[in-house]
Every structure is written in structure tokens, then in C-alpha cells.
Specification:
This protein has ten helices and two strands, in the order H-H-H-H-H-H-H-H-H-E-E-H. With 340 residues, the protein is an all-alpha fold. The longest helix has 45 residues.
């Protein structure tokens, strides 16, 4: 019976030359630097570059890139029969695979987080507005901002509908004969006109500002789980857009308030001097020239302000139609009357 031959011991791994070792170390360091740079870009998209969260997130990304190659290398070199290569060689292999994984991960994030075009953003916001108006079914949120934006449009629609409802309840037939001789004919007609001017002014003052809606939107943004830098960015963009969009509305509201106050002053002047004039042939005849001049001055001021208000209102409606049109919307979608 032949004796079993003992297995020959594994030959020791050939030693690497110093040059190869240096090159492998440099190659490994290059991979490490590229991996850190790639993950630094990825981390900065989620957190502010200087935040502690970004540092932790960066460390996690780099560790994740190395984790799988380390596990595979551990088991591969542990159970393979051939001699283990040098530590520098093994680290280079692990770093190279970690770099490949980091590149794949970055490419995937670039595909999924590619910035939307302006048209895509506007179309998406328009869809959220129509969902808020009940014209489209509510879809799952695509971003963390969808919920606050949808609620923002819901608030605007509720605001407009509430205003339209109260405005419809205001009985203002006297305003249709504003500045005519009939509106000055009797103390009763003057008192009715004054009452309706005050009612209209009070209603406009009640709905003059949309700041409560803007404040609610800010509160919803602050309540999201976004980072501070993300919240600051979205709020800065929103405030700039809101300020620019509200300028025509605020200009028209200011002109309307000025016109109504001027008209109130006119009818209060008539009320205080009701025994100093009479209406004849569709004209007011004053007993003194001074009162007639003051009356004409006040009428001229009030009618001029009414013309300025109508111009500002037309400019607001045009700006409103253009702004909403860029989102595929019209005023009626948000509870406001359409103006062509």
C-alpha cells in the first residue's frame, strides 16, 4: 500500500517591488479622494455643506461604498488557496471596487434628481392647484413640498370664494348711480350712498391682505422634515415670487381704497351742506360759489381716482391671467371671476 504524499506547503507570496507598492498606494489614495469628492457632491444636495448632518451623511456614503468590497475581499482572500497578495494590492482592489460602486450610485442619483425644467415645474404646480380645487384627484406627493403647495392653493380658493360670497350679499344699487344728481337729491339718497361706500370699504379692508395665507404656507414648510438649507431656499424663492405676483393686486387695492375714501369725503361734504344746494335739471345748484368750487374739486378728485383704480384693476387682472396661464390655470379655478 503506497504511502500518502504530504501536501506541499503553499509558496509564499512573491514580494512586491517598492515601486509597485508605491503605485498601488497612490492608486488607492486616488480612489479614496474620488470617492470622497463624489459623495461630497451627493451630501451637499441633501444638506448644507457646512452642517454637521452633511458630515455624518458624507461619512455614511463613503463607508457604504467600501462596505460591500471589504466583505467580499475578506471572504475571497480568506478561502482562496493561492498566496495572499500584499496589503497594498488588496487595498487597491477594494478601493477600485468601492470607486465603481460610488460612480454607479452617483450616476443613479443624477438620473433621479435631475432638475426639472421651468415648464415641468409650472405644469406640476398647476396640477397641484387643480387637485386643491377638486378638478383632479389628489395624487401621491412627488416631493416634500407638494402637500404645502396644494394646501396653499386650497387656502387661496377658500379666500376668494369667501370674498365673492360676501360681496354678493352687499346690496349696493346706490353705487350704480354714484356722482349723479339723483345720488345727491335727498338726504336719504346721500345716506344710502354713504352707507354702501363704507360697507364696500370695510369689505375690501377685510380681504385686502393675503399675508395670513402666506404665513400659513410658511408654517407648513417649516413643519416638513427638510433640512434648514432646503427650507430657506424654498422660502426665499416663494417670497420673491409672491411679492412680485402680489404687487399688481396691492396696487389695485390701494387705489380702490383711495377712491372709496375720496368718495366718502365727497358725500360727507354734501351731507354737511344739504341745506346749501338744490338739484335742478340734473345739476347741483349751490347758494355760494365757494361751496360749488369745493364740490367740483371733490367730484373731480373722486372721479379721477375711480379712473386710476379701474386702470390698476385692469393691470392686475391682466397680470393675474398671465401668471395663472403660465401654470395652465384661470382665475375661476381658484374661486375668482375670470376677466378677459
Amino acid at each position: 500500500m503506497a504511502a500518502a504524499r504530504p501536501e506541499a506547503p503553499l509558496a509564499p507570496a512573491p514580494s512586491s517591488s517598492p515601486v509597485k507598492t508605491v503605485l498601488r498606494v497612490l492608486g488607492s489614495l486616488f480612489c479614496v479622494l474620488v470617492i470622497v469628492a463624489l459623495n461630497l457632491v451627493n451630501a451637499s444636495k441633501v444638506h448644507h455643506p457646512s452642517s454637521a448632518e452633511a458630515v455624518g451623511y458624507l461619512f455614511g456614503l463613503c463607508f457604504g461604498a467600501y462596505l460591500f468590497p471589504l466583505i467580499v475581499a475578506f471572504f475571497y482572500y480568506r478561502f482562496r488557496k493561492r498566496p495572499k497578495p500584499s496589503a497594498a494590492h488588496r487595498f487597491l482592489v477594494i478601493s477600485a471596487w468601492a470607486l465603481v460602486l460610488a460612480l454607479i450610485s452617483t450616476a443613479g442619483q443624477l438620473r433621479t434628481s435631475a432638475p426639472l425644467t421651468q415648464q415641468e415645474i409650472q405644469r406640476h404646480i398647476g396640477e397641484l392647484a387643480k387637485q386643491a380645487a377638486g378638478q383632479l384627484p389628489v395624487s401621491p406627493d412627488q416631493t416634500k413640498w407638494d402637500g404645502p403647495i396644494r394646501s396653499f392653493f386650497t387656502d387661496i380658493k377658500t379666500f376668494n370664494e369667501s370674498y365673492m360670497k360676501e360681496a354678493a350679499q352687499v346690496d349696493n344699487p346706490a353705487l350704480k348711480s354714484l356722482y349723479t344728481a339723483d345720488s345727491f337729491r335727498t338726504p336719504v339718497s346721500v345716506a344710502q350712498t354713504l352707507s354702501q361706500l363704507h360697507t364696500t370699504l370695510d369689505l375690501d379692508d377685510k380681504y385686502a391682505s393675503m399675508q395670513p395665507i402666506i404665513d400659513k404656507f410658511k408654517q407648513r414648510i417649516q413643519a416638513t422634515d427638510a433640512s434648514k438649507s432646503e427650507k430657506d431656499s424654498i422660502m426665499q424663492g416663494f417670497e420673491e415670487s409672491a411679492r412680485k405676483s402680489l404687487e399688481p393686486r396691492e396696487a389695485a387695492a390701494a387705489k380702490e381704497r383711495e377712491w372709496l375714501q375720496s368718495s366718502i369725503e365727497l358725500y360727507e361734504f354734501i351731507q354737511a351742506n344739504q341745506h346749501s344746494y338744490s338739484v335742478r335739471g340734473g345739476k347741483l345748484i349751490f347758494k355760494t360759489t365757494g361751496l360749488a368750487d369745493e364740490f367740483n374739486e371733490k367730484v373731480h378728485k373722486a372721479t379721477g381716482l375711480r379712473s386710476e383704480f379701474k386702470q390698476a384693476q385692469d393691470a392686475f387682472h391682466q397680470a393675474q391671467n398671465e401668471k395663472l396661464g403660465s401654470f395652465g390655470l384661470q382665475p375661476s379655478d381658484l374661486g375668482a371671476p375670470s376677466h378677459k
